[in-house]
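Open question from group meeting: does this chain pack into something compact, or does most of it stay loose? Before anyone orders reagents, we agreed to write out a predicted structure and look at it together. Recording both the input and the output here so the notebook holds the full record.
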Amino acid sequence: MSRSIGLPLTFLARMADLLDEEFPTFLAALSRPPVAGLRVNTLKLSVAEFLALCPWELKPVPWCDTGFLLPPTHTASTYPLYDAGLYYLQEPSTMAVATLLAPRPGERVLDLCAAPGGKATHIAALMADQGVLVANEVEPDRAAILARNLETWGARHALVLSETPERLAERWPEAFDRVLVDAPCSGEGMFRKSEQARYHWSEAHVAGCALRQQDILDAAAALVRPGGLLAYATCTFAPEENEGVVWRFLQSHPDFDLEEPAPLPGLDRGRPAWAFWPPTQEEVAPAALPDARAEALSRTARLWPHRTEGEGHFVALLRRRDGAPRREWRSAAASELTSRERAALAAFWEPTVGLPLPERLLVRSSGEESEVYALAEDAPDVRGLRALRPGWLLGTLRKGRFIPAHALALGLRRCEALQRLDLPLGSEEVARYLRGEPLPSSGADGWVVVCVEGFPLGWGKRVSGLVKNHYPKALRWP
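Structure tokens returned:
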């Protein structure tokens, strides 16, 4: 089925010049509906376990072993397993980025422009909750969305910041094994699914994005340890924002080299001849580029809607030379809990949670309330930075009582809650809980984790045979 989506005429003329004989096929692809996908949360269950629960007929994403294409009639955004954080709804081509970045358990990884959290949640899963993931988003409202998505994902080792790249580069030079710059861009690759991207597009917008991307990359380079990896990604076709940005970065950062990406199915090579497009008198024409540099630019990767089942994406992997240990940072200092605070926390934790209470806790006080976080083993000191989440949010101490956070429930794995109310998938009780309604339940009074098929959804508090609903109001079903 084709459709008309009102593509900018100047954009069409540019793409016709760039793609030449490929352009009609490209244009036909943009006339088809966008493709939807999901990625399984392997922090909580295996792909096989998820497929046993999944109600839809799924098709694997070739470049991501935990990613799947959804049928057009899916209801994945209004299904309880989504609220339990068992999968993330993500455009399929974007799943290639974290796959190519290939973070490892135990590393320090920075996602510099991380909202809304698709790639950050993917990175967290690949790191298997080992090491430190710093997820940053400079816009506070978008950073809040990022924090919520990482909490639903159940990431225990992630920090969420809202800082400029420059401030982070000053604070943590050469401290990260891997850095991802999923750069703000003109969004041409999202034209099929975003009217806003089509409306705001212009050649001036493309040029402005390229300048901004260069500044972000310059700051990001300082954060990568010698021998570390810097990944640059956009969701646009524009050469100025892709091969052009990478070319200029290589000229100003001779200690970085382009690395050959993993040979994932569906990936096309970058176009070296597009490094300067359109050429001007002030710049070197593509034919005059040194052969070695032209060859290097072919190590960038592109995904095209007319060649894959997905939207447009670009990725470049930049390896910093001269491998050396990462520069150390000041570690976060754990808080000394008062005897009253520790007693309140233990009174909740011991009968409710089937995990040892984390040893390193951070308490942040605001008025009569204090938030309690569990710190990752290698968590950095974030004092002086805008930190929305310096660790895994466990809950709030208030007037001598501990109130568990939604993030604590979603961070628990299957069967890690000692007190729980298990509900079967597809039951009316699950829908009632997600709407914020109380549920009848026999048992001892106190906090319980409400679960679907054993996977936590959130908190309830049982009082005299009735579980009062503590599912966050902002997340409740209508």
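Observations to bring back to the group:
The first helix runs from residue 9 to 19.
Residues 281-288 have pLDDT under 50 and may be disordered.
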